[in-house]
Amino acid sequence: MKGFKWTVLLVSLLGLDTAWADVRLPRVFGSHMVLQRRKPVPVWGWADAGEKVTVTFNNQTKTVKAGKEGKWKVLLDPMEAGGPYQLTVKGKTNAVSFDDVLLGEVWVCSGQSNMEWPLQAATNGKEEAKEANYPTIRQLSVKKAVSLTPKDDIEGEWAVCSPKTAPGFTAVGYFFARQLQKELNVPIGLINTTWGGTHSETWTSREALNQNDELRLVANKLPATDDEVIQSGKERIRLLLEKQQGGLPTAAEEKKWADPTLNTDQWKSMNQPSDWEWGGLPTLDGVVWFRREITIPEEATLKNVTLQFGSVDDKDSTFVNGQFVGGAKWGQPRSYIIPDGLLKPGRNVIAVRVTDESGAGGFAGKPEQMQLTGDNLTIPLAGPWKYRVAAVFPSSFKPGPNTYATQLFNAMLNPLIPYAMEGVIWYQGESNAGRSYQYRKAFPLMIQDWRQRWGNDFPFLFVQLASYNASNGNSQRGSGWAELREAQTMTLQLPNTGMAVTSDIGESNDIHPKNKQDVGKRLAAEAMRVAYSGAAKGENSVGDASRGPMFDAMRVDGNRAVLTFRNVGSGLLVKDKYGYLRGFEVAGADQKFYYAKADLQGNTIIVHADSVTAPVAVRYGWADDNGDVNLYNKESFPAVPFRTDTWKGVTEATKFGDQ
């Protein structure tokens, strides 16, 4: 009996011990973090229900009892910038300590790939990283995750800015932080929560979407269970393949796809290099064949010929005129020597079988890496390739970040709330440009959603889309990108918002312009205006000029349109060797736009075109690729693209799910 009693007692004690939950905090807290100065600082986490939790930091001690669900939160009193300090949280059975904690300014960096873009890939990024000795600039990188329900924690850790860590910092955030630190001389903390190619709706909560009549329909379609998600994914992929190619091939059919005589008239086309998820195969993991026909000149000697196309995501098997010439795995640039006699003058066929296990798929190198070269031969291979799907992996059925709305809000933003911060910098919109009119509602809705959940109208600064030739859009054909920029400008009606104009620093053929330094600096200037008004006086203070000249009013004087502007700073400036203003168009009542001559007279611009005798409307920078604009104020901030008309736009009828 005694043995039995001791066994029961031991089991009871072990059960009691495992029931004690260690006090813990979400991973937004960590060593090397930056806490927000001059504001109450929430510190929260989990423990046993009713457990006493003590938080100690910078001569403050706060005590609280965990609630019935084991959650607890304390509010540290506002503090000035400084550090390093130690944050200690003690519970009944354990203590958690975070070292090297600073007090300063905290900014959330969010959006899609242009905010995610790392410093090492920006202009002079590697050289910049070598000089990045800024120990009081810190970054928390939030690991990518999706969820249909709100989560309470993230994966990620804080890093101190150094030549070793800086290459992985968000480039825009890094340059923003560096400039802000120069202005304020305090530590800067960046919370990098980004995902390339994402819509604003995936960063918005279900509750917020339900406030909008259009977006409520999207929220109502969200799956309820994981099984429903998988079944929906299977059906999504089935419909995609049925529409594109009538289904998957048999093994015998696929064996013929390297054959140069194969008829590929029914194959789809996709530009390469690119991620195939954004070229027509969203969320697809599997096997895709790419084929390209080339014509070799008769005079080519066809000696020492090499096929090159950078790296492939994840691996390839490459054939030339039906013969296997090589294959490699992810991360290795492709360079295959073509056997003498395999190529011939005239028509030749390159076929590449690409296998992608997860994430992005396709040719991942640079356009200039894709080429066929020989002794007297150079044939560029970047551009359209025929493609066809050969196999689909089960991971394809899982949702991507845009498959359903709310997913990134739930997984990558909600767990950060209510971490004390000063504001948000945001670079996104490219993925919403197909329905820009809807962005007029979706974008402000998202901002208000975040503010409501943090409990204050914090500064929200964003980057207007840079110039990029998305689809040759302009005033005559219509431009979704111009309409998206207009929607961003309209969002400035919200309080405590600011916008960095970047039309002048885009790249016509690259949606990821590499000049992130000017983007960061312009955002920092807007931060000084919106968040720190009065903090910087003298030579670094530009007042409202950082907004950039903004259209104010138009009057018609005969065949001329006379334009006035706000936010001109010290005056308007034309950046052109000969003083020519570019980017202006004018139209009459027929709504046909003509390139206009524009003259700067003081802070007024006179616009006219010989073909328009009675001006009705003027547009400036109204095109996908609007990089020719050159109006600034003397503080060097570019003018905001605009139109004076309200004529029907090309995206007016396009809604979520229509793209």
From TrEMBL:
<keyword id="KW-0326">Glycosidase</keyword>
<dbReference type="InterPro" id="IPR039329">
    <property type="entry name" value="SIAE"/>
</dbReference>
<dbReference type="InterPro" id="IPR036514">
    <property type="entry name" value="SGNH_hydro_sf"/>
</dbReference>
<feature type="domain" description="Sialate O-acetylesterase">
    <location>
        <begin position="105"/>
        <end position="208"/>
    </location>
</feature>
<feature type="domain" description="Beta-galactosidase jelly roll">
    <location>
        <begin position="253"/>
        <end position="356"/>
    </location>
</feature>
<keyword id="KW-0378">Hydrolase</keyword>
<feature type="signal peptide">
    <location>
        <begin position="1"/>
        <end position="21"/>
    </location>
</feature>
<feature type="domain" description="Sialate O-acetylesterase">
    <location>
        <begin position="417"/>
        <end position="527"/>
    </location>
</feature>
<dbReference type="Pfam" id="PF13364">
    <property type="entry name" value="BetaGal_ABD2"/>
</dbReference>
<keyword id="KW-0732">Signal</keyword>
<protein>
    <submittedName>
        <fullName>Sialate O-acetylesterase</fullName>
    </submittedName>
</protein>
<dbReference type="InterPro" id="IPR005181">
    <property type="entry name" value="SASA"/>
</dbReference>
<dbReference type="InterPro" id="IPR013783">
    <property type="entry name" value="Ig-like_fold"/>
</dbReference>
<dbReference type="Pfam" id="PF03629">
    <property type="entry name" value="SASA"/>
</dbReference>
<dbReference type="InterPro" id="IPR008979">
    <property type="entry name" value="Galactose-bd-like_sf"/>
</dbReference>
<dbReference type="InterPro" id="IPR025300">
    <property type="entry name" value="BetaGal_jelly_roll_dom"/>
</dbReference>
